[in-house]
Structure formats: structure tokens, C-alpha cells
């Protein structure tokens, strides 16, 4: 696990882009829970962190594909492939992500 940011750096349902080693990751806070996904839309290779968080998940800003925050599965077209989801651990005010292990 690698420290990604402080929990206090994350606003609820506002994506935050971070680089963990050579992996681009988008973090999304939902209350006390933090999700980490690969920061790249599987449809158009664009940064998901530039999109919005909706009730469906994180939405790619260009074509509107949404990805479930827990599974990475697309919930709306045009994307048909999931994005990687990474393990997250919160320790005090520190958010740790393991970009070497995917949960999906």
C-alpha cells in the first residue's frame, strides 16, 4: 500500500486524480468510504477524474460512460469493458492505495 493523499484532501463525491508510481488513479470519497479506480476510461482512454460522480458511479466527461465505483463495471454505454479498481485503506487521515492488486 502506498500513501495517496490525506483523507481531508477528498471532498465528498468529487474525483481527485493522483499518481501512484506509474499508475494514474482517481479517488472518490463517499462519506467514510474511499474508492480507487484506474483514471482512464476503458472506451476512450480519457481521465475519469475530469468527470462527475453520479448515482451510477463516475461518469466520463466526453461520451458519458459511467463506471461503478466498487466494481469498475460500466453501467452505461458506450464503454463495455470495466476499469481497474484498487484496494484502499484509511489510517487516521491517510489514504493508502495498492495499485498492484485489482479487486475486479
TrEMBL record:
Organism of this sequence: Kibdelosporangium philippinense
One Pfam family cited in the UniProt record for this chain: Rieske
CDD domains: Rieske_RO_ferredoxin
Keyword line: 2Fe-2S, Iron, Iron-sulfur, Metal-binding
The protein, known as: Non-heme iron oxygenase ferredoxin subunit
Gene3D superfamilies: Rieske [2Fe-2S] iron-sulphur domain (2.102.10.10)
Ranges where the Rieske domain occurs: 2-97
Protein's UniProt keywords contain Aminoacyl-tRNA synthetase: no
Amino acid at each position: 500500500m502506498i500513501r495517496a493523499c490525506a483523507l481531508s484532501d477528498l471532498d465528498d463525491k468529487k474525483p481527485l486524480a493522483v499518481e501512484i508510481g506509474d499508475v494514474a488513479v482517481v479517488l472518490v470519497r463517499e462519506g467514510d468510504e474511499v474508492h480507487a479506480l484506474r483514471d482512464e476510461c476503458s472506451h476512450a482512454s480519457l481521465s475519469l477524474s475530469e468527470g462527475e460522480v453520479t448515482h451510477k458511479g463516475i461518469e466520463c466527461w466526453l461520451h458519458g460512460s459511467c463506471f461503478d465505483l466498487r466494481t469498475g463495471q460500466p453501467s452505461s454505454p458506450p464503454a463495455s469493458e470495466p476499469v481497474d479498481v484498487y484496494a484502499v485503506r484509511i489510517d487516521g487521515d491517510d489514504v493508502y492505495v495498492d495499485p498492484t492488486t485489482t479487486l475486479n
